[in-house]
Structure formats: C-alpha cells, structure tokens
Amino acid sequence: MGQEFVGIISILILMSIGVILGYVLSQLILGYLTLNLVTFLGTISLIIIFGTLYFVLFWEFKKRQSRSSFSTQPPYPTPEPTADPHLQNQLFALLGGDKPTANRLVEQLKQNHPDMSENWYWQRAIADLERDRAR
Questions:
Q1: Cα distance between the two ends of the chain
Q2: What count of Cα atoms within 13 Å lies in the side-chain half-sphere of residue 123?
Q3: Residue 14 CB contacts under 8 Å (≥ 6 apart), including other chains
Q4: 87/121 Cα distance (integer angstroms)
Q5: Are 118 and 82 in contact (CB under 8 A)?
Q6: Structural contact between residues 2 and 60, judged by C-beta atoms closer than 8 angstroms
C-alpha cells in the first residue's frame, strides 16, 4: 500500500514537471522567454529531474515485475511424487509382477480422481483389485 502511494505521488510529480518543462521549452522556442543563465539552468534542472524520476519509476516497475515473476516459479524443480515402495510391491504382487498393468491402473485412477496423493492411487488400485477378487 505504501509503495503504491509513493508510485502515484511520483507519477503526479513526473507529470507536473513534464508539463512545466513543456511550457518552458515552448516559451523559449516561441521567443516569449529570453534565453539567459536563469532560464537555461532552470530548463536543465527540469530535464534532469524529469529524467531521474522517469528512470526511477520504470526501474522500480521493472524490479517489481521481475520479483513477481520469480515468486510464481519454484526456486528449484519439484521432484515427481513417488509412491511408497511397499504399496507398489503389493500391487505388483497382486498382478503377478505385471508392472505395465499396475501403472495403467494407477494412471486411470489419476485421470478419474485428480489431485489425490500418489500413495492414495496405489492404495485404491490395491483395494479395487482385492474387492474384485473377493467377488
């Protein structure tokens, strides 16, 4: 909230200095204002202030934008979730060592029930097989 307020104030100051600078330059070009040391230094100071504020505002904007893009990405790649080896071995044993079928069953459960833990899929596949065999 405080940074947004500072940004708004900075933009207002930047706009007002831009208007004043534009007015002074137009008066110099039209000849209504004589070019002497005071007008020259005043114009140069307005240009310096305008340029500094412009640079600081856009530098802060770019810094804030890059900070937000870093926060959406994890700092390191997350490993693929793995199931408990005991559960995997139990399912493989129920299927007579047929690993492709076990993996296919787990993948079907993942499609039918998204956002569950990896162990849940393996436990559900075991429970489904045991239920079907009990019939």
A1: 64
A2: 6
A3: 50, 53, 54, 57
A4: 10
A5: yes
A6: no
